[in-house]
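Two proteins follow. First one:
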Amino acid sequence: MRRVAVAGERPYEVFIGAGAQMELARVLEGTARAVVVHAPPLAAAAGAAVETLQTAGVAAEAVVVPDGEAAKTADVAAGAWEQFGRLGLTRTDAVVGIGGGAVTDLAGFLAATWARGVRVIQVPTSLLGMVDAAVGGKTGINTSAGKNLVGAFHPPAAVLADTDALAGLPGAEFRSGLAEVVKCGFIADAEILRLLAEDPTGRLDTEELIARAVQVKADAVGQDLRDTGVREFLNYGHTLGHAIERIEDFGWRHGEAVAVGLVFAAELAGQAGRLTADEVDRHRTLVAAMGLPVRYAGDWARIQQVMRVDKKARGASLRFVVLDGIGNPMILTDPDQAWLDAAWAAVSE
């Protein structure tokens, strides 16, 4: 089993490999009570976690929330808080989030806000959750104004990325997670790009790809928890990606939207003279080989409006993470409209 240490004010470890969930009892040793937050499809995994904790002397109960992005609403959060109160959860207790990125986002937000902050152990069951949502301490819910605009920075006490959970993951969900992996390759780790070029499915070196992607995120988060510096580079591809998700009412998977965002950001960097034509084409070719979309048909005027209210915006400025060469991310603020229009033309159908 691999371990990646995440530094900062509240350091923790990410356990990666088969059977990682078995660490749950150890990391919560001595805890009086815990709630296990999960969606209905993961009732069996949540039940096993509850049993493990109860055997270890932790009074554990499950709290069921909707599946997917439907979990990330104020109404769902309010209902969970009521259950926390009924179960008598105190500040010295813990929340365990079992599921994909949406459930771990919600579980972290619940832990951050209950009793002004209780521990959260994240047990991601999707590739996207393992390499992105569960690591880094960003938590949040969605509103009609946008994705994750309500949230808190609340680092987990541990992350248990059990690769056994990926065996039954649908292919489309696995590919969605790979978008965040290849993003880490473009901004920081050329070995990720090499591995995915050799095997675009990501199935042959899954554990190594996860560990490398988590290390890229850990390096950024350890320096910059609150997204004011190098952590912002992890948003590569996300400005357009989040706009697509919102416009499609989250009917597009996160990784699918980010995949288009990566190609758009590369095209924008090409327009700005930061990437060569070959480097731009490398984005499109690799993302397409991985089975992810590289085009999106939508209303460009509306997309620009939505991007301006993204949580990564600063006042009236439109900001994009772009690359000044592969592996060298930077912020491009208020790019020329002609550059934006050309990049859009390259990804729109």
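Second one, unrelated to the first:
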Amino acid sequence: MASINTQKACTCLSSSSSSSMSQWKHEVFLSFYGEDTRKNFTDHLYATLIQNGINVYRDNENLEQGKPIALGLMKAIEESKNAIIVLSKNYAFSKWCLNELVKILECMKEKGLKVWPIFYHVNPFDVGNQRESFEKAFLKHEEDRKVHKEQIQEWRTALKEVSKIRGRHLVDSPESEVIKEITKSIFDELNRELSNDSEHLVGINSHVKEMMNLFSTMSDDVHFIGIWGMPGIGKTTLAYAIYGRICHQFEASCFIRDGREIVEKDGLVNLQKQLLFKTLKVKEENIWDYHDGIKIIKARLSNKKVLIVIDDVDKVEQQQALARSCNWFGLGSKIIITSKDKHLLIRHHRDTIVHRANGLDNDEALELFSWTVFSQTYPKKDFEDLSNGFVKYAKGLPLALKVLGSSLIARPRKVWEDYLHQLEEIPEGEILDKLEGD
């Protein structure tokens, strides 16, 4: 068993949102001229993005320059959320690169593709006005009878447009610093979108990054990942965040919330039907009992690369009914299970990687409490001392912070004082037991 311990946990102000997950296949498309940067700057950039768990499309190293741009490459641009364009000295000599650039800007306007230009030892002014090496490149294109004037003008316009987009101008700056900066910017952008989906996330970035780093090192085998921690610690929120970041990388995916409650209310068969419906988008009417469900899951998903998140598992039968064995799923599949029972997570899959979710640190706890009560990152002036009192009492437990904070919204200071005094007289264990019951 592999185990990862974290120092903080993550949570959101409201994780009840069922907003749609990203439909992009790639988080970043890399456009660059291979002979200039493939084996140095671009290679280092690509490696750093991957290490940070960012899904990157980079063209095949053996693709021949000069041939008409492949339809597959055009499709990859259309399916990307971001595009990094490394504009180097000889970029404009490549018809391939120029066609990529035109397509990228088209998708920026029509599909919301976010563009990140890097002016690699070239001046943005020279790029936009086709001076220096860019001028030489266009003189060459104009001599080529196979290149139409309309296409040349389209390329010139694209270079003019990209030169006006704010980007990184790399001249004397250390390349490693620029790579770190752009990687962080894209990582933060991806998580900012996730935050918008879930209203307000606190303490999420470091945990998402850690998990994404872990995923980037995994083989193409089927992997089981457990998220373990006490009730209310933020297991579901972390699983939801990870799901939102990587679901588009799979043929099929599903997030099953509150697995324990579903089983208690409707039984294991209903849980199996929900799994099949969410992954295949087809209702399965031929499941009459638990064993039928197992056979159908194996038959339907054994050749598919799937992402399955099963939230709040408290009995081994739930895991056996949905994901007992690696051979139930196609290569590259990931099964994420959240539970308060660590032993349950590793009982049938000893190679399960277990991520422990711990409480928020004091700053994060205060931020979450403040968002809950005041809709801002820090308490109002007259409530700073009392807010810190509630934060201290909650001991970093996100659910406790939200429950306590919700009861204090728009209440006068006297009510806060009385409530905190009452809490101090109640044993901590009783409060946690109540929250677990909720």
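SUMMARY FIELD: The longest helix spans residues 175-197. Confidence is low (pLDDT under 50) at residues 1-22, 61-68, 434-438.
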